[in-house]
Structure formats: C-alpha cells, structure tokens
Amino acid sequence: MRGKVIPYKSVAIALIKRPWFFPMMIILLFIAVFGATYAPWGADAAPAWVQAVGSVAAIIAAWLIPQLHDHHREKKNREDVIASIHWVAVMGKNNLQALIGVIERSEVGYLKFWKSTSSGADFKILLDAANAVPLTTFSGSDISYVINLRQALSFGDECAEVLRNWTDGEAPLLAGAFPKINNLTHHAHQIDWVLEQLAGMADAAGRITKASTHA
Fold it and tell me: How many CA atoms lie within 13 A of 60 on its CB side?
C-alpha cells in the first residue's frame, strides 16, 4: 500500500513565501561562491574545508527540517478546520431545510413533531462550533466562508426561536405569516454557497496531491 503523498510543489511554494527564504538563499549563494573561489581544495587543508562545508550543511538541514514539519503541521491543522466547517455547514443546511419544511407545510402535526424532536436546538450548538473556528486559520476571501456560515446559523437560530413559540393551532398560518421567510431561504442558499466553496478548496487540494504524484 502506498503511503500518503507529500505535495512537494505546495511545500516549495510555501517555503518561497516565507520571509526568511531569500536571505537564506543569498547566504547559501555567498558560501558557495566563496568556497568555489577561495577555498584551497587542492591543498592539504581541503579535508578541513570539506568538513566545514559539511558542518554548514548540517546546520542548515537542522534548521530547515523543523520548518518543513511546521508547514505540514499547519497544513494538517487547516485541513482539520476545513473538515469541521464542512460538517457544521452540512448540519446547518439540514436544520434550515427542516425549518423551511415546517413553515411551508403549515401543518399542526408537522409543527408538533418538529417541536418534540430537534425544535432547532442544534442551531445553537452549530453556531457555537462555527464561532469557535479561528479566523487566523484562513486568509483573504476564505474568511468569508466562516462569516457567511455564522450569519446563516445565527439567523436560523432566531427563526427556530420564533417557531418554537408559535401556537400549534396557528400552524396553518405559518406559510403566509412567518416573518422573514424569504430571508430564511436566502440563508439556506448562503450555506449552499459555503459548501460549494469548501468543495472547491477540497478539489484544489486533490489536484495538488495528484500533480505531485506524477511529478
């Protein structure tokens, strides 16, 4: 069985973006030019120079390897966070669809069943989970995924509270009288958008891994 493929190209790109990369390359280039120009490779001191170069290489390796491990750890943490957000978004979508279904059907039995089961209590749990996601895990427009998810879950929680307090006998009035029903549908589409973006991120990660396999 083949082990997990390491996306070397993505690692290289991440290293190049680090602020210390180019200064380190300049230092290495200076050492290489100095060694090739001034080191007495043909003299008796050549073994000492080889040992010195090897020592420098060992120091660089000792510094670089932890950097690579840090990159892999950061990447793994990011993947775990994205997976968690995806799970929260899926559960949030299911809860919103159930909420919309109760309103659209406007049936007493359906409303009572909803109240006796979840009654939208999951919204608070999911919202807490979304709020616990550190935004520092993301960058740029990726932050909007978490923000949009939080907004949708917060609105769903508000609507669930209204529906919990809705009189059973007035269930037939739900479809026409429930406040902000259009906004509820909008937030359902909002979660769909978040799921699409997360799926795109997963596909991109898969393409990077696949490309590194054939590199």
Answer: 14
**Separation between Cα atoms, residue 121 and residue 157, nearest integer Å:** 8
Q: Is 164:103 a contact under the CB 8 Å cutoff?
A: no
What amino acid occupies position 181? Answer: I
- CA dist 82 and 14 (Å) reads 19
The arithmetic mean of pLDDT across residues 24-34, rounded, is 70
Q: Which of 36, 34, 148, 38 is nearest to 88 (CA)?
A: 148
Could you tell me the CA-to-CA distances from 44 to 34, 41, 53, 54, 55 in Å, in that order? Answer: 18, 8, 16, 17, 19
DSSP assignment letter at 120? T
| 116-126 core/surface letters (b: 16 or more CB in 10 A; e: else) | eeebbebbeeb
The confidence score (pLDDT) of residue 89 equals 92
To the question of pTM greater than 0.85 for the whole model, the response is no
Closest among 192, 152, 161, 153 to 179, alpha carbons compared: 161
